[in-house]
Design brief:
By secondary structure, the chain is α+β, with helices and mostly antiparallel strands. It has helices at residues 3-10, 39-52, 84-104, 122-137, 147-153, 181-194, 238-245, 307-320, 369-382, 396-399, 406-409, and strands at 32-35, 57-60, 76-77, 111-112, 115-119, 143-145, 169-173, 177-178, 198-200, 205-211, 214-220, 223-226, 230-232, 252-261, 271-274, 279-283, 289-295, 329-339, 346-348, 355-359.
């Protein structure tokens, strides 16, 4: 450790305050209780306090801040979705992301890179053209590009892809970016805490009290609190909480794995995604290659990583970048993805009055963090769905009004 840094750390004169308080006890009642101290839950608390003046809020987390899906993703931010509803929603999130570092006075390492979604077949190329036209129609910067453009932006790529799946073109999305995912959670947490929100870690919800189809309180391992509004923002852990209030959804929980390499000198300036190879990769500010694959093909509540994943992913990565053969994988992990039949989230009101649902995030939850906080805080404060999330209501499955995003959301983050 550098001597100057050690002196700073031990100096009482420059003693840094903690990022958040650690309240010793739960209060008897809160206006709003948010279950889950990941990005979505903390963002909802932040905007409730900042935009709506609702500060008597408790965020309950059974483990630690950002320890779920927020800390287990590949931190890609984009808006190049397929449906008008999805594009408008994620475009607003990208816009919010761009100002977050200034809002928080915290470096989130937000880096705009440009996002390529490669096409290896005529069918994929048609889908990319479709997405580009939908994006352009809604004012989102995306275009279909040829192989010469790809090679210019990413000289190291092997467009023949090992000879068995040549790249034929790509959807290029210039606003595509990466960010420091844990810093996003810390920023929202600190901002909420500074405005009076209480964040209770190591606090597990054991029951939700409902009387006459209305929420009245929350039971935890540290006692029971009264509240008339509860926000469920726990991603892959949603089904057990829904059982507590008797709500059924079509969610399926599947593992999603990722890994990082040893640090390398900067060489990959863009984000590369291949739906055909089930691969996405970017290079972090520390030089690591952050990469992942598609969902594991089985529903299971487990965050255990597997050798099969890293072997298959490494093979596909070498198809695109053969020179990486000697690069070491440093660590791998898995997260839980709560997937819906139409690959779009479930957000807003629920059949139980006062119970609000933020779920169904599959592989696209991190990039939606700011817009989820904005729209869910509005929904809770006004007790009506924000216009951006009205299409994502739970009742759409009964009404057969699905928002089909599989063509744009089933592989990349």
């Amino acid at each position: 450790m550098p001597h100057r840094l050690l002196r700073f750390g031990l100096s009482k004169k420059y003693n840094e305050p903690r990022m958040f308080r650690s309240p010793e006890q739960l209060k008897k009642s809160y206006d709003v209780v948010i279950i889950g101290a990941g990005g979505h839950g903390l963002a909802t608390a932040y905007y409730l306090a900042r935009d709506h003046g609702i500060t008597n809020v408790a965020v309950l987390e059974r483990a630690y801040i950002g320890g779920g899906g927020t800390g287990r993703n590949t931190a890609i931010v984009r808006a190049n979705y397929l449906t008008p509803e999805g594009v408008a929603f994620y475009d607003e999130s990208v816009r919010l992301f761009q100002d977050l570092s200034a809002d928080f006075d915290l470096n989130l390492f937000y880096s705009q890179r440009g996002h390529f979604t490669l096409a290896h077949s005529d069918a994929s190329l048609r889908t990319m053209r479709w997405r580009a036209e939908v994006n352009k129609h809604l004012g989102v910067d995306s275009e279909l590009v040829d192989t010469a453009f790809i090679k210019e932006k990413c000289p190291h790529i092997d467009l023949s892809c090992g000879g068995h799946a040549p790249v034929m073109g790509a959807l290029f999305h210039p606003p595509g970016a990466i960010a420091r995912h844990d810093a996003v959670a810390w920023g929202y947490g600190r901002g909420a805490d500074q405005r009076g929100v209480e964040i209770h870690q190591q606090t597990e919800v054991t029951g939700i009290l409902v009387e006459g189809d209305k929420v009245t309180g929350v039971q935890t391992n540290r006692g029971t609190v009264e509240t008339s509004k509860v926000v469920c923002a726990v991603a892959g852990y949603t089904p057990p909480l829904l059982e507590m209030v008797g709500i059924k959804t079509p969610l399926v929980i599947q593992p999603l794995q990722a890994c990082v390499s040893e640090p390398l000198k900067p060489w990959l300036d863009t984000i590369i995604v291949s739906a055909s190879l089930h691969l996405y990769v970017s290079q972090s500010s520390r030089g690591e290659l952050v990469t992942g694959a598609s969902l594991d093909p089985y529903p299971i509540h487990s965050t255990r990583s597997t050798l099969d994943f890293v072997e298959g992913l490494s093979g596909h990565l070498l198809d695109l970048f053969p020179f990486l053969g000697d690069v070491k994988i440093m660590r791998q992990w898995a997260g839980l993805s709560d997937v819906t039949p139409d690959f779009s989230p479930i957000m807003g009101l629920s059949p139980v009055e006062g119970f609000y649902l933020d779920a169904g995030w599959g592989t696209w939850g991190f990039k939606a963090t700011p817009v989820c906080g904005k729209t869910m805080s509005y929904t809770v404060a006004e007790n009506k769905p924000h216009p951006l999330i009205e299409p994502f209501r739970l009742s759409r499955f009964k009404e057969f009004e699905l928002v089909g995003e599989k063509g744009a959301a089933s592989v990349g983050h």
